[in-house]
Every structure is written in C-alpha cells, then in structure tokens.
C-alpha cells in the first residue's frame, strides 16, 4: 500500500521517460487490470510498452510528425493512453477529447488547439468529415526496443480543458516539464492524500483521470479499469478487488452507488469498501446527509475535494470533519490562501457570501464560485456565479432548488437553468429533470403541490438522459442550447 509522501519519483524530464524506467525496473508488473463482459484481463508494463510501440508505428504511417497536435476521441481508454505516449514518442502533442461530445464540439475544440486531425475508434464519429478512424498497430518485430521519448521538457504534452459546465471549455497547454512536476506533486506532496492502486471508470478526457493514470504508470502502481459503458454492479466489483486502494468518482456516481447497494440489500455493519485508503469525490457538490450516508455505506476514507482547472485541488474535507462539517468542502490546503471578496474585489468578513478567490504560487484566480469562510477556516461553496438567478425580486441558488426538485419528484438528477422572460427583465426558471417524458403530468402535479410559488420553477423539461461533461457534470451550456433549439419540450408548470 502506498501513502502520501512515501513514493520516490524519478528524475527524467518527461512522463514517458519515467514510464520506461518502470518498464526497466519491473517489466512483468501489472499496469492494467481490465474488466469486461468477456472476463478479466491484464497488461504488464512490458505488454503496454509494446502497445505504445505499435501505436507509434501506426501513427507514423498516417503521417503524424513532430510538432503536430493530434486529437484523440476514443471509447477504449487504454488505447487512448497508449496513443498519448505514442504521440509523445513522435514529438507530437495529444489533445484528448470526449467521444460522447457532438462532432461539432469535438472539431471546434480541435480547431482551437490547432490539431492537424482527430482520430477516433467510435464509428458514429468517424462518419463525420474531419474525424478519422484510429489507426491500427503494425508488426511487433519492427518495433522491439525502439521506443524512445525525446528530451523536450518545454514542448506541449497535454491540454487541460475546463469542465465546460457553464460555457465553452477553456484549453490550457501544459508542457512535459509542467506535467511531470504536477504528477510528482500528486504523489509526494500530500496534495491528494493517501493513494495507491486505482479503480478507474471515468473517461480520460477528464483531466483528473489522466493525472491519476500518469502518476500510477510512473510509480509502479496498478490501474483497475471498468468498461466505459459500465453498470453499478461492474463498478462495485472493481471497488471490491483485493488490490484496489483508491477511487476517484464524481458525486453522481457516488450517489448512484449508494442507491445500488441499498437496492441490492448489501448495506452491512461496516463500510462496503473498507480496504480502500481513499475514495475521493471530485467535480461537484456532495454535501449534507448525502455525504454522511455515503461515508457510512461506502467508505470511511471518503473525502470531498474542491478544485478548479486553473489551480488544482483547493480544499479537502475528510475523516471526522465530514460528520462535524458536512456542508463544507473543508479547509484550504496549506499552499492555498483563500479570500472571499465582493464584486469590486474587496475582502469580506467571515460568514459573508462572496466570490471565492484563491492565491497560489504568487498568482490569484477565481474558480467562478460563490461561498464563504466560517470562523474556524472551513470553506463553504454555495454555487457558481452563473447559477444565481433572480425572479420577482427573489434570488435563486440553482443547486438548492435542484435538490428540492429531486426530493419532490424522486428523480436522480435535475438541472436548473434560466431563460430570458418575454418581458426581458426577470429570469424564467426551468427545471430539466432526467426522467422519461411519460412522467410529465405526475411531476407537474407534485411540484405545484409541494413547492412555494416563490421558488417553484416556471417550466419543466423531462429528458431520459441529460448531457454531461467528461467529469459527469451536467453540461449546462449545452443543455440551454438544446432547449433553445427545441422549445416544444419546455412545459409550463
């Protein structure tokens, strides 16, 4: 088992070179354990090195060359990881994209990154002009011993993309040197707490997943994967794996896992995943009774993190503090200085809501959230700036109303968005609920009966599946556009 501060990292200039060092040290160690409908498989470090070599040959055969940016939008995440390292070996820069995104979004992001092409193994995408089928590997005999990663610390190694929850995702290029340094901090600086063999179920287009894979690939730790289209039974089995030590999941999966365990009658006298050294919730709020129940049922090593693309993890709530401060996101990490400021940037006193501003490494950033610090230094996030609406003089906090709508309807997921009113002054509040449209009449009746007219949404939309980002947050901006394009789906309550 590996704990914070106990891992010795290597001194090479790139992740690729550090990976090769691991291959040299222990080629037979298992890097990937895979679970699918056909059974359990594994890939050693030597196996995966061979896959990288074959992928490198295939890319070279397609004309990929040093200095190019190449988009990847695959369903197979291990193939994506091999493609990332293969592109590094060719001196190219990978741009990892979410295969579930509309082709127009994929091509727009590729265009902003100046990618020469996008490769995908998803037939639905490759039917679109500008998205090519992922190349297949060449002959193993041609590549033996040829994998070398150029010493190019200042070349772009990755593009960190913001979540795209409330607007167009921002792209931030990261050099090989910066990427290795950030990965090193994850393992040795205590920034992410205890860690080890990781259960992974999220798409690699989510930056946090890539960082975990980078970290484990250069430290000799295992990655236990589940299928990209998994069910909760498969995720449960992976988390019960005898070698599983950590998992990072978004709140929507943690809530779903709790419901699955309760529905299957699997709640025991102790947390189900008591072998884990960490179960981390990342990418959105997991608060109050939902959080304490998850800690009790899933793992007493559950922790909540608050982070942003710009600054990484800002704060963490864990251990007994979850029971004492369940609506907080914890105390800021030691290297983060948090201020709460008003619209003009002036500091606000404790317990007063304002813009969250974090200062780290000499630079200040605003994650885009509103919140406050209490007298003990705990940080509370009350919503994103874009999630505050006003109607008839009453201000709305979207997450609070979403939780209330879910309680009333019994739906697993709700997203509150706004649209301009016909008068053009107040917002129209729209509740978009993940449910079958056949529930429309029942949901309207419940909302009229149980929500005050002051807080009740003006309109309701029912969709079988809400669009989500790579981190499984609801893609609000995409949702607003979808409703704008299909106004007939929006019904008055």
Automatic annotation (TrEMBL):
UniProt keyword terms in alphabetical order: Ligase
TM spans (from-to): none
Domain of life, source organism: Bacteria
SUPFAM superfamilies (alphabetical): Acetyl-CoA synthetase-like
GO biological process: fatty acid metabolic process
Assigned protein family: Belongs to the ATP-dependent AMP-binding enzyme family.
Protein name in UniProt: AMP-dependent synthetase/ligase domain-containing protein
Species for this entry: Phaeobacter gallaeciensis
């Amino acid at each position: 088992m590996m704990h914070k501060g106990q891992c010795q990292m290597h001194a090479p200039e790139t992740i690729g070179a550090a990976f090769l060092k691991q291959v040299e040290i222990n080629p037979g160690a298992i890097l990937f354990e895979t679970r699918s409908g056909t059974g359990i498989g594994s890939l050693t470090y030597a196996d995966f090195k061979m896959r990288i070599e074959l992928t490198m040959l295939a890319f070279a055969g397609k004309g990929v060359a040093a200095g190019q940016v190449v988009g990847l939008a695959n369903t197979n995440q291990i193939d994506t990881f091999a493609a990332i390292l293969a592109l590094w070996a060719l001196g190219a820069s990978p741009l990892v994209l979410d295969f579930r995104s509309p082709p127009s979004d994929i091509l727009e992001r590729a265009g902003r990154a100046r990618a020469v092409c996008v490769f995908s193994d998803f037939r639905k995408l490759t039917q679109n002009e500008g998205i090519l089928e992922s190349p297949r590997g060449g002959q193993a005999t041609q590549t033996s011993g040829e994998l070398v990663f150029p010493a190019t610390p200042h070349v772009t190694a990755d593009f960190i993309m913001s979540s795209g929850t409330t607007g167009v995702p921002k792209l931030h290029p990261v050099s090989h040197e910066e990427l290795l340094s950030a990965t090193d901090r994850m393992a040795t600086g205590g920034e992410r707490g205890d860690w080890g063999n990781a259960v992974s179920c999220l798409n690699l287009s989510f930056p946090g997943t890539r960082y975990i894979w980078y970290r484990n690939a250069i430290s000799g730790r295992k990655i236990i994967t589940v299928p990209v289209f998994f069910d909760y039974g498969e995720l449960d089995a992976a988390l019960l794996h005898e070698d599983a030590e950590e998992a990072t999941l978004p709140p929507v999966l943690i809530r779903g896992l709790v419901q699955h365990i309760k529905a299957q009658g699997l709640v025991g006298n102790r947390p189900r995943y008591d072998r884990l050294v960490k179960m981390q919730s990342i990418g959105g709020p997991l608060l109050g009774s939902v959080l304490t129940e998850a800690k009790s049922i899933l793992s007493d090593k559950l922790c909540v993190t608050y982070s942003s693309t710009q600054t990484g993890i800002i704060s963490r709530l864990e251990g007994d503090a979850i029971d004492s401060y369940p609506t907080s996101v914890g105390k800021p990490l030691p290297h983060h200085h948090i201020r709460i400021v008003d619209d003009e940037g002036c500091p606000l006193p404790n317990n007063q809501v304002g813009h969250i501003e974090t200062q780290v490494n000499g630079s200040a950033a605003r994650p885009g959230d509103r919140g406050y610090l209490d007298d003990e230094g705990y940080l509370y996030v009350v919503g994103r700036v874009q999630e505050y609406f006003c109607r008839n003089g009453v201000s709305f906090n979207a997450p609070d109303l979403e939780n209330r709508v879910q309680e009333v309807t019994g739906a697993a997921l709700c997203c509150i968005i706004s649209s301009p009113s016909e008068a053009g002054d107040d917002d129209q509040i729209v509740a978009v609920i993940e449910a079958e449209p056949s529930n429309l009449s029942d949901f309207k009746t419940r909302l009229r009966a149980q929500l005050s007219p002051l807080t009740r949404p003006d309109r309701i939309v029912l969709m079988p599946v809400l669009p989500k980002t790579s981190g499984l947050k609801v893609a609000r901006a995409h949702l607003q556009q979808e409703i704008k394009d299909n106004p007939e789906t929006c019904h008055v309550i």
